[in-house]
Amino acid sequence: MNLSAQLSRIRPFLSTPFGRYLVIGGSIYLFELVVIYIAQHMGASALVAVGLSFWLGLIVSFVLTKFVTFRDKRTHHRVVLAQILAVGLLVVFNFSFTLLVTHLLADQVPAAVSRTVALGITTIWNFYLYKTRIFQTDVPA
Fold first, then answer.
1. To which H or E segment does residue 134 belong?
2. What pTM does this model have?
3. Cα end-to-end distance, the chain, whole Å
4. Per-residue buried b or exposed e for 103-128, using 16+ beta carbons within 10 Å of the residue's own CB
5. What is the pLDDT of residues 98-109, one digit of tens each?
6. Taking the domains of the chain in order of start, what are their residue ranges?
């Protein structure tokens, strides 16, 4: 199958916000891995490398989710600051939820499994909140 045919098969998926959301999320994950690799090869500790990748990933994710996934072109500082605050609160909530899931499942499954479960759940409700609240662009003026 040539590249053109492959692209035509995924184009419908990428034309939906959820498809773009998943692709961007996967891309951010890979971006964070690259940041960790580069930072560690430049002498950063694992803690510093992961911290750097987290914050860079969060910033890039916010921008891509806003402008690409949901095509929210609003850039007025009041709108953007409110969105940053909402995403920040969501990050804190998701982190707490992830720790709770990990704690509840600690005796049943490996940590990677509990993290994956929490990630799947937060991915779904994040998409819902982004689409219906945080990056909603079809609100009447």
1. none
2. 0.84
3. 47
4. eebeeeeeeeebeebbbeebeeebbe
5. 999 999 998 998
6. 1-71, 74-141
